[in-house]
Amino acid sequence: MEILDSLKKHIKTEKASFHMPGHKGGAAFSGSPFENELLSFDVTEVSGTDCLSSPKEAIALSEQRAAQLYGAKRAFYLVNGSTCGILSMFYAFFKEGDSVIVDRSCHISAVNALVLCGLNPVYVSQNIDEKRGVPSGITADKIKRMLEEYPEVKGIFITSPNYYGMMSEVDKIAELAHSKGIPLLVDEAHGAHFPFSKKLPESAISMGVDAAVVSLHKSLPCPNQTALLLINDEKMAEKMQKAVNVFQTTSPSYMLLVYIEAALDMAEKQGEELTNRLLEYLKPFAKYQTKDSFKLLLSFEENGITGYEAEKILREEFGIYAELCDNKNVLLMTSWGNSEQDFELLSTAITHIKSIKKEPLASKIITEFNEGRPELSPKYALNVGREWILPQDSVGRIAAATVTAFPPCIPVLLPGEKISKKQADEVADMILQKTAEGLKDGKICVIKE
After folding, report:
1. Whole-structure pTM value
2. Closest to 59 (Cα-Cα) out of 83, 73, 78, 82
């Protein structure tokens, strides 16, 4: 663990700190409840600790090791989360005015990238798993049709796995992209664990995509904000480093860097064993697993219980906190950090919920949103006159801001697109469930007529 070793060496040699940060290796908290030895690793770019924005020593060696683990040509450590990586990918691969095929089930950071880079999106929707009521990924056939209809596109951006653990046809889409001489970029935030067990899906970078972002904190034992940006072409390394430096802090947390190393070290040495153990724990819940076995999607429709009601029971009666819920489902994210006792408690909770009998619910068909080009580019739509109106009055108007469901920060409305009745109804339902972000006093931002 190169970064950790360099910091240990620094701690031994430093007699007095006259540099950032102000807590001086944790000395400022000495004797207080906040005293913590870990703060001694929270240093800055001084001799011997390397520099994240231009790594040449310990950080460079550590990133090389990460690249090898994921089968990439280069890896870039991110301490501003996958958001930083997504912004960087768009910035490095495209230039202002380019058209890009973009997965509608993207994270809001991808929409922000379109705005910042002045790009023109061509939206593509994921297919729908009607039984489970969630997006189920993008097929190569759908991308092929998009490429035929919009031959001017300069690249493709998809999300796989999606928030629910469903996979797109990444390998086939990569072949299509490369046959057209354009890059495929993948938000693989939820797939950081894939390379460490043969029982898990294949990682995007191993399937030949040009770049991918993985969030270490989502499924590996790593703190929030930790992620990796991976590329498959060494020629892009310098350009990508410059792009990352545009969006990443110039004061990176060395504590986060140490945890990135620790998580990857654990994954390399114990990933297969830890995955096997977790999959054993998950066997009784096989009916709830998605394509990513670490994800559980619970539904109690046959018992007349909504996802919102089930989540409340899990939380209030059993102390089980879920990742998210919707009208139909409760999404649980598991990891190597879960214990056998966690799953015993979950089993008890599920048995309890299934003992509740109400009138079965009618399945709610998930909303399918617009595909193709929006009426206006996101950048333009965010910089013109606007007004706020009620959802029921917004049908046919042009959205002037992003509205997302939170979690998972996936856009329902995108700036520049014409609002359909389905979208207006979806936003109204989100307001009732208090899951909408991007509104003001329950109103949608639209372009002023």
Report:
1. 0.93
2. 78
**Residue ranges of the chain assigned to CATH 3.40.640.10:** 52-250
Is it true that domain 52-250 has CATH number 3.20.20.70? no
CATH class, range 378-447: alpha beta
d(CA 279, CA 76): 30
How many angstroms separate the CA atoms of 110 and 80, rounded? 15
- Token pair 């939380």: residue: 315
Rounded CA separation 415/381 (Å): 6
106-122 burial, b if ≥16 CB within 10 A, otherwise e?
Answer: bbbbbbbbbbbbebbbb
Q: What is the pLDDT along the chain (449 residues), one digit of tens a residue?
A: 899 999 888 888 888 887 889 898 888 888 888 888 888 989 999 889 999 999 999 999 999 999 999 999 999 999 999 999 999 999 999 999 999 999 998 999 999 999 999 999 999 999 989 888 899 999 999 999 999 999 999 999 999 999 999 999 999 999 999 999 999 999 999 999 999 999 999 999 999 999 999 999 999 999 999 999 999 999 999 999 999 999 999 999 999 999 999 999 999 999 999 999 999 999 999 999 999 999 999 999 999 999 999 999 999 999 999 999 988 999 999 999 999 999 999 999 999 999 998 888 776 656 667 899 999 999 999 889 999 999 999 999 999 999 988 777 788 899 999 999 989 998 988 888 888 889 999 999 999 98
**Nearest-angstrom CA–CA distance, 441 and 97:** 34
CATH 3.40.50.150 fits 271-354, yes or no: no
From-to residues of CATH 3.90.100.10 in the chain: 378-447
